[in-house]
Amino acid sequence: MSSIALVRSLFVALCAAVLAFAPAQAQQGLTVTTTVSWTWDEVAGDDDGAAFDEDGALLDEDALGDDADLAATRRYAPSATLATLGRAQAQFGPFAVVDAGTVRMAGDVNSATPRQFAAMLAAFPGLKRLEMVDCPGSLDEEANLILARAIRRAGMETVVPSGGSVRSGAVELWLAGSTRRAAADAEFGVHSWADDTGREANDYAASDPVHAEYIGYYREMGMDDAHARAFYALTNSTPFDEVRYLTREDMARFITLH
Questions:
Q1: pLDDT tens digits for 210-221?
Q2: Fewer beta carbons under 10 A from the terminal one: N or C of the chain?
Protein backbone atom coordinates (compact mmCIF):
# COMPACT_ATOMS: atom_id res chain seq x y z
CA MET A 1 0.00 0.00 0.00
CA SER A 2 1.07 3.52 -0.68
CA SER A 3 2.23 4.42 2.84
CA ILE A 4 4.85 1.68 2.98
CA ALA A 5 8.05 1.43 0.95
CA LEU A 6 9.63 -1.99 1.19
CA VAL A 7 12.93 -3.82 0.78
CA ARG A 8 14.00 -5.17 -2.65
CA SER A 9 17.70 -5.79 -2.10
CA LEU A 10 19.40 -8.79 -3.65
CA PHE A 11 20.29 -9.94 -0.17
CA VAL A 12 16.65 -10.10 0.87
CA ALA A 13 15.70 -11.71 -2.43
CA LEU A 14 18.31 -14.41 -1.93
CA CYS A 15 17.33 -15.00 1.68
CA ALA A 16 13.66 -15.09 0.79
CA ALA A 17 14.22 -17.50 -2.08
CA VAL A 18 16.56 -19.89 -0.28
CA LEU A 19 15.42 -19.72 3.34
CA ALA A 20 11.89 -18.47 3.41
CA PHE A 21 9.69 -19.09 0.48
CA ALA A 22 10.48 -22.63 -0.58
CA PRO A 23 7.49 -24.72 0.55
CA ALA A 24 8.06 -26.60 3.79
CA GLN A 25 6.42 -29.72 2.44
CA ALA A 26 6.72 -31.61 -0.83
CA GLN A 27 4.17 -30.56 -3.44
CA GLN A 28 2.23 -33.77 -4.03
CA GLY A 29 1.33 -34.45 -7.62
CA LEU A 30 2.70 -31.10 -8.81
CA THR A 31 5.82 -30.08 -10.64
CA VAL A 32 6.92 -26.62 -9.52
CA THR A 33 9.66 -24.49 -11.00
CA THR A 34 10.85 -21.54 -8.90
CA THR A 35 12.99 -18.71 -10.20
CA VAL A 36 14.35 -15.60 -8.53
CA SER A 37 13.99 -12.17 -10.16
CA TRP A 38 17.55 -10.91 -9.89
CA THR A 39 17.27 -7.71 -11.91
CA TRP A 40 14.67 -5.00 -12.31
CA ASP A 41 14.35 -5.81 -16.03
CA GLU A 42 13.59 -9.44 -15.19
CA VAL A 43 10.93 -8.44 -12.68
CA ALA A 44 9.37 -6.06 -15.22
CA GLY A 45 9.77 -8.25 -18.29
CA ASP A 46 7.71 -7.37 -21.35
CA ASP A 47 6.09 -10.79 -21.56
CA ASP A 48 5.01 -10.82 -17.90
CA GLY A 49 1.26 -10.42 -18.04
CA ALA A 50 0.29 -11.51 -21.54
CA ALA A 51 -2.85 -13.55 -22.04
CA PHE A 52 -2.51 -16.45 -24.46
CA ASP A 53 -4.87 -19.05 -25.83
CA GLU A 54 -4.08 -22.76 -25.64
CA ASP A 55 -2.11 -22.56 -28.90
CA GLY A 56 0.08 -19.75 -27.60
CA ALA A 57 -1.60 -16.89 -29.48
CA LEU A 58 -2.00 -13.54 -27.76
CA LEU A 59 -5.58 -13.13 -26.57
CA ASP A 60 -5.82 -9.62 -25.22
CA GLU A 61 -3.20 -6.90 -25.54
CA ASP A 62 -5.00 -4.88 -22.85
CA ALA A 63 -4.07 -7.62 -20.39
CA LEU A 64 -0.41 -6.77 -20.89
CA GLY A 65 0.94 -4.88 -17.90
CA ASP A 66 3.50 -2.10 -17.72
CA ASP A 67 5.67 -3.05 -14.76
CA ALA A 68 8.30 -0.35 -15.23
CA ASP A 69 7.15 1.50 -12.13
CA LEU A 70 6.32 -1.25 -9.68
CA ALA A 71 4.86 0.20 -6.50
CA ALA A 72 6.55 -0.45 -3.17
CA THR A 73 6.00 -3.96 -1.86
CA ARG A 74 5.38 -5.12 1.66
CA ARG A 75 6.95 -8.51 1.18
CA TYR A 76 9.43 -9.61 -1.43
CA ALA A 77 8.78 -13.03 -2.90
CA PRO A 78 10.65 -14.94 -5.61
CA SER A 79 8.80 -15.39 -8.88
CA ALA A 80 7.29 -18.86 -9.23
CA THR A 81 5.53 -20.63 -12.07
CA LEU A 82 3.75 -23.96 -12.10
CA ALA A 83 4.97 -26.30 -14.80
CA THR A 84 1.93 -28.57 -14.75
CA LEU A 85 -1.27 -26.55 -14.45
CA GLY A 86 -2.89 -28.76 -17.05
CA ARG A 87 -4.25 -27.69 -20.42
CA ALA A 88 -5.60 -24.20 -19.81
CA GLN A 89 -8.22 -22.52 -21.97
CA ALA A 90 -6.39 -19.23 -21.48
CA GLN A 91 -3.71 -17.71 -19.27
CA PHE A 92 -3.65 -14.22 -17.78
CA GLY A 93 -0.40 -13.60 -15.91
CA PRO A 94 -0.40 -16.03 -12.95
CA PHE A 95 -3.98 -17.17 -13.69
CA ALA A 96 -4.79 -20.24 -15.81
CA VAL A 97 -8.45 -20.76 -16.72
CA VAL A 98 -9.11 -24.51 -16.68
CA ASP A 99 -12.89 -24.56 -17.19
CA ALA A 100 -15.89 -22.23 -17.19
CA GLY A 101 -15.94 -21.99 -13.40
CA THR A 102 -12.37 -22.59 -12.24
CA VAL A 103 -9.09 -20.70 -12.47
CA ARG A 104 -5.77 -21.78 -10.99
CA MET A 105 -3.12 -19.40 -9.74
CA ALA A 106 0.64 -19.95 -9.59
CA GLY A 107 3.15 -17.11 -9.28
CA ASP A 108 3.66 -13.65 -7.84
CA VAL A 109 1.40 -10.60 -7.86
CA ASN A 110 2.88 -7.51 -9.52
CA SER A 111 1.49 -4.19 -10.67
CA ALA A 112 -0.11 -5.79 -13.76
CA THR A 113 -1.93 -8.58 -11.95
CA PRO A 114 -5.15 -6.69 -11.06
CA ARG A 115 -5.57 -5.74 -14.74
CA GLN A 116 -4.94 -9.32 -15.79
CA PHE A 117 -7.58 -10.49 -13.32
CA ALA A 118 -10.10 -7.97 -14.67
CA ALA A 119 -9.39 -9.03 -18.26
CA MET A 120 -9.84 -12.65 -17.28
CA LEU A 121 -13.24 -12.00 -15.66
CA ALA A 122 -14.35 -10.03 -18.71
CA ALA A 123 -13.49 -13.00 -20.92
CA PHE A 124 -14.75 -15.68 -18.50
CA PRO A 125 -17.51 -14.11 -16.36
CA GLY A 126 -18.58 -17.47 -14.93
CA LEU A 127 -15.40 -18.01 -12.92
CA LYS A 128 -16.20 -18.63 -9.26
CA ARG A 129 -13.41 -20.85 -7.92
CA LEU A 130 -9.79 -19.71 -7.51
CA GLU A 131 -7.39 -22.57 -6.79
CA MET A 132 -4.15 -21.20 -5.32
CA VAL A 133 -1.58 -23.86 -6.15
CA ASP A 134 1.82 -22.19 -5.60
CA CYS A 135 1.64 -18.51 -4.68
CA PRO A 136 4.82 -17.00 -3.18
CA GLY A 137 3.47 -13.51 -2.49
CA SER A 138 3.53 -10.01 -3.93
CA LEU A 139 6.05 -7.72 -5.57
CA ASP A 140 3.57 -4.85 -5.19
CA GLU A 141 1.52 -4.75 -1.99
CA GLU A 142 -0.84 -2.05 -3.21
CA ALA A 143 -1.66 -4.16 -6.27
CA ASN A 144 -2.02 -7.20 -4.02
CA LEU A 145 -4.74 -5.55 -1.93
CA ILE A 146 -6.49 -4.22 -5.05
CA LEU A 147 -6.55 -7.78 -6.36
CA ALA A 148 -7.75 -9.14 -3.03
CA ARG A 149 -10.72 -6.78 -2.98
CA ALA A 150 -11.50 -7.63 -6.61
CA ILE A 151 -11.61 -11.32 -5.66
CA ARG A 152 -14.05 -10.50 -2.88
CA ARG A 153 -16.25 -8.35 -5.15
CA ALA A 154 -16.37 -11.18 -7.70
CA GLY A 155 -17.69 -13.52 -5.01
CA MET A 156 -14.98 -16.06 -5.71
CA GLU A 157 -14.22 -19.04 -3.53
CA THR A 158 -10.51 -19.35 -2.71
CA VAL A 159 -9.04 -22.84 -2.38
CA VAL A 160 -5.59 -24.16 -1.47
CA PRO A 161 -5.67 -27.70 -2.91
CA SER A 162 -3.73 -30.71 -1.70
CA GLY A 163 -0.02 -29.94 -1.95
CA GLY A 164 -0.79 -26.24 -2.40
CA SER A 165 1.17 -23.42 -0.81
CA VAL A 166 0.40 -19.74 -0.25
CA ARG A 167 3.01 -17.52 1.35
CA SER A 168 3.46 -13.91 2.33
CA GLY A 169 1.05 -11.55 0.56
CA ALA A 170 -0.73 -14.50 -1.08
CA VAL A 171 -2.24 -15.31 2.32
CA GLU A 172 -4.14 -12.00 2.07
CA LEU A 173 -5.48 -13.12 -1.32
CA TRP A 174 -6.72 -16.40 0.11
CA LEU A 175 -8.44 -14.53 2.95
CA ALA A 176 -10.35 -12.50 0.34
CA GLY A 177 -12.46 -15.46 -0.78
CA SER A 178 -16.20 -15.18 -0.21
CA THR A 179 -15.68 -18.69 1.13
CA ARG A 180 -12.28 -20.18 1.93
CA ARG A 181 -11.22 -23.79 1.62
CA ALA A 182 -7.93 -25.58 2.19
CA ALA A 183 -6.81 -29.19 1.97
CA ALA A 184 -5.53 -30.89 5.09
CA ASP A 185 -1.93 -30.57 3.85
CA ALA A 186 -2.20 -26.98 2.59
CA GLU A 187 0.47 -24.61 3.91
CA PHE A 188 0.34 -20.92 4.73
CA GLY A 189 3.62 -18.99 5.11
CA VAL A 190 3.60 -15.71 7.06
CA HIS A 191 6.16 -13.18 8.22
CA SER A 192 6.57 -9.51 9.12
CA TRP A 193 6.63 -6.63 6.68
CA ALA A 194 9.66 -4.32 6.47
CA ASP A 195 10.00 -0.80 5.14
CA ASP A 196 12.72 0.57 2.85
CA THR A 197 14.94 1.41 5.84
CA GLY A 198 14.83 -2.15 7.16
CA ARG A 199 12.46 -1.37 10.01
CA GLU A 200 9.93 -4.11 10.59
CA ALA A 201 6.42 -3.98 12.00
CA ASN A 202 7.54 -4.42 15.61
CA ASP A 203 9.93 -1.48 15.25
CA TYR A 204 6.93 0.85 15.01
CA ALA A 205 4.95 2.03 18.02
CA ALA A 206 1.75 0.11 18.65
CA SER A 207 -0.17 3.36 18.07
CA ASP A 208 1.34 3.98 14.61
CA PRO A 209 -1.38 4.20 11.91
CA VAL A 210 0.52 1.75 9.72
CA HIS A 211 -0.76 -1.13 11.84
CA ALA A 212 -4.40 -0.08 11.46
CA GLU A 213 -4.19 -0.55 7.70
CA TYR A 214 -3.49 -4.27 8.00
CA ILE A 215 -5.79 -4.90 10.94
CA GLY A 216 -8.54 -3.10 9.03
CA TYR A 217 -8.01 -5.34 6.02
CA TYR A 218 -8.32 -8.51 8.10
CA ARG A 219 -11.55 -7.19 9.61
CA GLU A 220 -12.84 -6.35 6.14
CA MET A 221 -12.24 -9.97 5.14
CA GLY A 222 -14.29 -11.35 8.02
CA MET A 223 -12.19 -11.47 11.18
CA ASP A 224 -13.49 -9.80 14.29
CA ASP A 225 -11.22 -7.21 15.89
CA ALA A 226 -9.67 -9.61 18.39
CA HIS A 227 -8.81 -12.20 15.76
CA ALA A 228 -7.56 -9.56 13.32
CA ARG A 229 -5.16 -8.20 15.92
CA ALA A 230 -4.05 -11.67 16.98
CA PHE A 231 -3.38 -12.75 13.39
CA TYR A 232 -1.47 -9.54 12.65
CA ALA A 233 0.65 -10.08 15.77
CA LEU A 234 1.32 -13.68 14.74
CA THR A 235 2.57 -12.68 11.28
CA ASN A 236 4.84 -10.04 12.77
CA SER A 237 6.35 -12.44 15.29
CA THR A 238 8.49 -13.86 12.46
CA PRO A 239 11.19 -11.62 10.93
CA PHE A 240 10.85 -10.35 7.38
CA ASP A 241 13.60 -12.58 5.98
CA GLU A 242 12.19 -15.74 7.55
CA VAL A 243 8.86 -17.56 7.30
CA ARG A 244 6.51 -19.30 9.69
CA TYR A 245 4.36 -22.05 8.21
CA LEU A 246 0.80 -22.47 9.41
CA THR A 247 -1.60 -25.33 8.79
CA ARG A 248 -5.24 -25.36 7.82
CA GLU A 249 -6.10 -25.85 11.48
CA ASP A 250 -3.97 -22.85 12.45
CA MET A 251 -5.84 -20.62 9.97
CA ALA A 252 -9.20 -21.92 11.21
CA ARG A 253 -8.41 -20.37 14.59
CA PHE A 254 -8.73 -16.93 13.02
CA ILE A 255 -11.33 -17.17 10.26
CA THR A 256 -14.12 -19.48 9.07
CA LEU A 257 -13.18 -22.20 6.57
CA HIS A 258 -15.56 -24.43 4.64
A1: 999 999 999 999
A2: C
